[in-house]
Amino acid sequence: MASIDKLKSVITSRGGMARKNRYNVFFTPPSMSLFNIDPQAILSNVLTGQDVSVGTLVNDPRDISLLCDSVTLPGRSLSTMEYQDQFQVIKMPYTFVDSEVSFSFLLTKDYYMKRIFDNWIDGIINAKDAEGNVVPYQLGYKKDYSTDIVIQQLDEEDVPVYGVKLINAFPINIGDIELGNANENEFSKVEITFGYDKYEVEGPLSSTVSQITSGLSIFG
Questions:
Q1: E strand or H helix at 152, and its extent?
Q2: What gap in Å lies between CA 192 and CA 71, rounded to an integer?
Q3: Per-domain residue ranges for the chain?
Q4: In terms of pTM, does the model score above 0.70?
Q5: Which pLDDT score, from 0 to 100, does residue 206 have?
Q6: With contact defined as beta carbons under 8 Å apart, do 135 and 195 qualify?
Q7: Which of 55, 61, 64, 165 is the residue whose CA sits 20 to 30 A from 12?
Q8: Which residues of 8-21 are buried (b: 16+ CB within 10 A; e: fewer)?
Q9: Across the strands, what pairs with 82?
Q10: Average pLDDT of the chain to the nearest whole number
């Protein structure tokens, strides 16, 4: 077994240990999930004297990164078939499967993140027709409800050292939210599971470019 000094030398030569709490997430949800046109919420804000402005009606996707409490980097596994080679059975790969990705988001009092994903999933299963009318239980086109998601591992200077891009991602599950008297000192969170076509591994430079591209997509 290697000595502690040799282990320390390897870790130091590679910039130290990666820390789980140094990460970033970037994506822009489809437009149907960014508008907060809820008459009841608007009326409630007016009656309670809260601000009702353009900023409160259009959700800012840049807040998503700040409210992301945790995320998983996806794994990948090979699917194999067995091949008989004389006296031995050999496994042969024929495709791969990428794991689903789970996010946890902090919930503010206006349920900002919950509303985004409620609207997102509603737009997937209750799509609009050519005239712009909502058709119940009609699935939309994938290009209209999917987006690319960038997940980055950062160092202590907030520089990405590793990243993945989820291609054509969309939410497939909104988790339950537990409420109860025993949770008096806990913040509410919502768990979201995403499906996607595949993921691409990105280096520091390419992940930074993806981050900038994601930011530009906010402005169309």
A1: strand 147-154
A2: 10
A3: 20-217
A4: yes
A5: 85
A6: no
A7: 165
A8: eeeeeeeeeeeeee
A9: 91
A10: 85
